[in-house]
Amino acid sequence: MELKQLKYFITIVESGSLGKAAQKLDVGTSALSQQIAKLEDELCTRLLSRTSTGVTPTPAGSAFLKQAQLSLRHVQYAIEAAHSSRLTGHVSVGFSPSIASVLGIPFMKLMSERYPDIKIHLVESLSGNLTNLVNSRQLDIAIIFTQDVDTNWSVQPLLKEQMFLMANKALLQEFGFEQCIQEGEIDLQRINQLPLALPSQRHGLRKFLDQKVELLDVDYEVDGLHLLMNCVSNLNMATIQPVSAHFDYLKSDICLLKVVEPKLDRINYLISISEEQLSPASLATKVAIKSCVKDLINKGLWPSAELLDF
């Protein structure tokens, strides 16, 4: 099997036809077809289904495509590493908005100091979106709140965050919750009396809460952490979030009450393609994330977060 065959196959699938692929690759259609035939003979399986309108990958072809793309990426990593005595490469990393608010700056600072030649593409998005990007192999590493990813991915519990009710102090006093403010705790029965704002059901946090809590009365759905926290800070709304969501608002008048009965803990998972498949740059980045998280928690800079064994 030759690297050019992998490149030819990927280009054909992405182009949807042999003719278009041949133009992109600047090779003859006949030569391209022969190389794919040789590849299929070597694998003893059909990779492409040919029709009058073009070509599409067979189920075997779709499975082969992911690994072929990964192989070519690693070849590029190897070329980049050979051209430099220092660790180099491109790594794509995904954080949810709440994780990014705490981890984003320290992580980027650590990477710039340790590995200045590694180019980081940092994506901030909803946990559900990150899961889709991970499964489509558009991210190398991510921190998400679910284990529902491709079985070939490495999934490692990273930290556990306790959930809090967050609301303006005046709103809590309006509902007669002075004792809750003093004790720093609140139960679900009282939470349901408040005008509650949460992300919509496509959001990882909402899915987590719906799984853990029955009959949660949601009055407003707000997608976007910054907008949600501004609503809580300035309007008569409450929300349920980890402390990391409140990180930029610690000096505001928002009260944080620990949710009890039921107690709510959310696990954050560090995921990546299997470490055997990770590039050296991605491995270094994964270690840096763990180091950064450990340092923040040990220094008390990530309130209510508990480091899990890793």
TrEMBL record:
<protein>
    <submittedName>
        <fullName>LysR family transcriptional regulator</fullName>
    </submittedName>
</protein>
<keyword id="KW-0804">Transcription</keyword>
<dbReference type="InterPro" id="IPR005119">
    <property type="entry name" value="LysR_subst-bd"/>
</dbReference>
<dbReference type="InterPro" id="IPR000847">
    <property type="entry name" value="LysR_HTH_N"/>
</dbReference>
<dbReference type="GO" id="GO:2000142">
    <property type="term" value="P:regulation of DNA-templated transcription initiation"/>
</dbReference>
<feature type="domain" description="HTH lysR-type">
    <location>
        <begin position="1"/>
        <end position="58"/>
    </location>
</feature>
<dbReference type="GO" id="GO:0003677">
    <property type="term" value="F:DNA binding"/>
</dbReference>
<keyword id="KW-0238">DNA-binding</keyword>
<dbReference type="Pfam" id="PF00126">
    <property type="entry name" value="HTH_1"/>
</dbReference>
<keyword id="KW-0010">Activator</keyword>
<keyword id="KW-0805">Transcription regulation</keyword>
<dbReference type="InterPro" id="IPR036388">
    <property type="entry name" value="WH-like_DNA-bd_sf"/>
</dbReference>
<comment type="similarity">
    <text>Belongs to the LysR transcriptional regulatory family.</text>
</comment>
<dbReference type="InterPro" id="IPR036390">
    <property type="entry name" value="WH_DNA-bd_sf"/>
</dbReference>
<dbReference type="Pfam" id="PF03466">
    <property type="entry name" value="LysR_substrate"/>
</dbReference>
<dbReference type="GO" id="GO:0003700">
    <property type="term" value="F:DNA-binding transcription factor activity"/>
</dbReference>
